[in-house]
Amino acid sequence: MDNMQLFSAPGNLDVDGALKLLETVGLPMESGSVIAVKVDFTKPCPPCLPVICDALREKGCLAFLADTAPCYGDALKSLWFAPANGYDRAGAPCVLADGVKGTDYELIPAKGVKLLRSAKFGRAILDADAILSVTELMVDESGYYGVIYDLGFGCASRAGKTEVQTSGKPVVDQSKCIGCKQCTTVCEHGGARMEENGKATIFPPKCSGCSRCMRICPTGAIHPNFDVTDASVQSKIAEYAKALCDMRPHAHLMMAAGTIYACADPVQLDKVCAEALGIPSSLTVGIEHLISLREG
Ligand code: SF4
Ligand code: SF4
After folding, report:
1. What is the average pLDDT score of the chain?
2. Beta-carbon count within 10 A of 288 CB
3. What are the chain's domains?
4. Which residues does a 6 A CB cutoff place in the pocket of ligand 2?
5. What pTM value is reported for the model?
6. Ligand 1 center to 193 CA (angstroms)
7. Interval 282-293: pLDDT, tens
8. Proximal ligand: closest to the CA of 213
């Protein structure tokens, strides 16, 4: 397997071992370069993370620990979890990559994919010179949450997370609509329309998904359309991951079954782990989607 590295017992990794692991998987570590270490502040700090941060510091890199705002509620929630989960002792500052309101993102092109035209990532992650994801694999009946998920969903801004989970076009809950027509006025595409019953509706063929109408509606009647298949969500997350990897040098560590798996290629890393654990194909649609894109 290309550049796949294994290291048993994450807690036993020392600085020399971490440096060797990171060099082998090709993480650029020039002195002074800024490395975004993507972690999940809502989960316990991986035991190897302080050593990874020490190793980056030994090379003269400026590392920071990055996570993004959750989809809903207080955007700062992720940051509150960080000290409680031990990230304040990892040896690098904790940063909410899409800002304190989850609105600080950069729109980047998504090339060579089928479902997206662009992707929205936390700006601080794209400000970095390279990305190192450190992921604790999680699998349950709802999904396989590996490296592709951590990159494609975990690095996406709040708007990006909403985009991958929805059809991209809103819908109107007419029971809340008061017929004020603010949505039809603000819409530049003819996507928001009034029906004969005096209530608004969204006409999908005209809607560009800009979400202006959602923001202006005084009653909250317009909301994202979550009526999408799991396969579609997984594939869009995978395309987000590809867009990020196309933009920045990257390397990945994943903790699974007592072993650190390290690789420069998130697809290979996820595929090897999914196969080793016998994950059903319904949960690995995103991995297969990226493989099919590569094969053209
Ligand atoms: S802005 Fe909201 S309340 Fe007003 S017409 Fe549109 S959907 Fe109805
Ligand atoms: S999302 Fe944008 S394009 Fe679509 S209906 Fe609302 S304002 Fe119009």
Report:
1. 92
2. 17
3. 5-164+229-295 (3.40.50.11440), 167-224 (3.30.70.20)
4. 169-170, 186-187, 189, 191-192, 202, 207-213
5. 0.84
6. 10
7. 899 999 999 999
8. 2
